[in-house]
Every structure is written in C-alpha cells, then in structure tokens.
Amino acid sequence: MNKAWKCNQLNIKYLYVDSPVLDRAFHESLRLNIDAIMCRRALEPTMIGSKLFLPDTSLLMPSRQLHMNQIVWGNNYKTFNAERFVTNQILLKYYFYRFFVGEVN
Question: Which of 8, 52, 64, 79 has a CA that sits 20 to 30 A from residue 39's CA?
Fold first, then answer.
C-alpha cells in the first residue's frame, strides 16, 4: 500500500516528514520560480549605498536577485537541483532564501 495515501486521501504529513527529497524539490522549485516583492519600513535613518532612508520610509525589494545569486547558490544557480537543499539543509533558513516573504527574524 502506498503510504502517501491514507483513507483515499493524500497524506500531506507523510509527504512532508517522510519524503525529504520531495520536500527539497518543492523548495528548489520555489527558489527558481517565485518572484516575491519584499516590503520593509525604515525604523531609523538608514544608509543603503549613497541613499538615506528616513524613518517610516517604505522600501520594496525583489527577492529574485537573492535566489539567483551565484555566490550563494553556486555555479549551477540557474539549474534545478533539489540536492542543494538535501546536502545543505541550512539553506532552508538562510537569508538568501525568501520564497514567501514574511517578517525578518
């Protein structure tokens, strides 16, 4: 019997907990395809490059550049490679991986 199905329903918990390769393939798909926009608000005067952002200034930043950074993701950064998340699980919590943008930790 296929463990991914339980009582004729897809067992999401099994797929997530007991199928790490599938989970990592999901994350790699998101890394390559999500183009989320991050929105942050300056809390204090902040310099980025030569630009000064005053308190309450909103900043919009695309996350695509984070996901396509060759220094972070390696020479094959444009290629689907779910193994990168299997061999280096810290990538799932790394700053450069923002598939759904929420609060910064």
Answer: 79
